[in-house]
Q: What sequence folds into this?
């Protein structure tokens, strides 16, 4: 059942991605991207990363997609069609994408072969690792990780942990980055009335 | 559903995004393709956080599985992407105001 849902979701995700890339109408492409983002959030839920799924919905769908839709509506007419890529570009893009895909699939295949040998004993030894003193999560005092699932509670504790395994400094730095981006975006998009240029 | 399936899905998503980035001529459409590629990377982060995949040293000391760090990595990536998209769309609006169209081939003002 889970597998069935995963493969259906993957097919929908890839179909939406193709719409995003190929649609001649910019608004339709934006809606395709919206579908991809919703599908990714569902995939995160399936992978039991509910915090990432929530942030995906709030930041991507609630923030970035609204940005993109505003930009589309501000800059182009709604029913307008974009010209398609020239044949040369089409072939070039296909070659680049094909090369990237072949490289990545080859990499995943190689990793799969080496993992298949080493992951089985590792899965058995997961309990030993969890009880071991070297477990990073255990040494930071956070709640123990069970089966690769991070609860929202432990994520929050980890984010505000100033210890060696905590993420307090990156957390504060990212807020400074977001503030700087906000100021920069306003400065860039502001209509400057002082100069006539 | 396992790690390999997730990685293959994200590889396909990345390739589709790369194709879009190469062929799109509209600024916003190119940005949307970029978002697809970022999403592929996010899927990788979360899949590795979920399934581990300590690699060759899976039983070694440094490979203690840390699902929280994987999720937090994805969260930080989302935040950085949000900052990036805010700036990019501000540039889109500024360019559109100045030039009236968003064809990236015509954005050669810094070409010298």
A:
């Amino acid at each position: 059942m889970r597998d069935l849902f995963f493969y259906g979701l993957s097919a929908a995700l890839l179909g939406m991605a193709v719409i995003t890339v190929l649609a001649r109408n910019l608004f339709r492409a934006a809606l395709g991207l919206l579908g991809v983002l919703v599908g990714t959030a569902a995939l995160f839920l399936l992978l039991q990363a509910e915090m990432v799924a929530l942030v995906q919905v709030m930041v991507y769908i609630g923030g970035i997609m609204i940005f993109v839709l505003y930009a589309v509506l501000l800059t182009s007419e709604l029913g307008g069609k974009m010209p398609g890529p020239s044949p040369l570009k089409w072939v070039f893009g296909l070659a680049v994408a094909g090369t990237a895909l072949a490289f990545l699939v080859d990499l995943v295949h190689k990793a799969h072969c080496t993992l298949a040998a080493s992951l089985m004993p590792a899965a058995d030894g997961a309990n030993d690792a969890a009880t071991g003193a070297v477990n990073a999560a255990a040494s930071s005092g956070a709640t123990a990780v069970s089966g690769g699932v991070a609860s929202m509670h432990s994520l929050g504790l980890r984010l505000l942990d100033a210890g060696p395994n905590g993420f307090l400094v990156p957390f504060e730095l990212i807020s400074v980055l977001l503030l700087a981006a906000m100021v920069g975006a306003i400065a860039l998009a502001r209509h400057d009335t002082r100069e006539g240029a | 559903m396992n790690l390999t399936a997730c990685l293959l899905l994200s590889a396909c998503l990345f390739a589709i995004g790369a194709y879009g980035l190469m062929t799109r001529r509209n600024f916003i459409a190119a940005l949307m393709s970029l978002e697809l590629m970022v999403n592929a990377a996010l899927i990788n982060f979360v899949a590795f956080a979920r399934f581990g995949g300590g690699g060759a040293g899976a039983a070694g000391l440094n490979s203690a599985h840390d699902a929280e760090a994987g999720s937090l990595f994805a969260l930080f990536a989302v935040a950085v992407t949000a900052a990036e998209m805010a700036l990019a769309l501000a540039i889109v609006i500024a360019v559109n105001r100045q030039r009236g169209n968003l064809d990236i081939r015509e954005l050669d003002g810094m070409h010298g």
In short: Residues 19 and 32 of chain A are 6 Å apart (CA to CA). Chain A has eight helices and no strands.
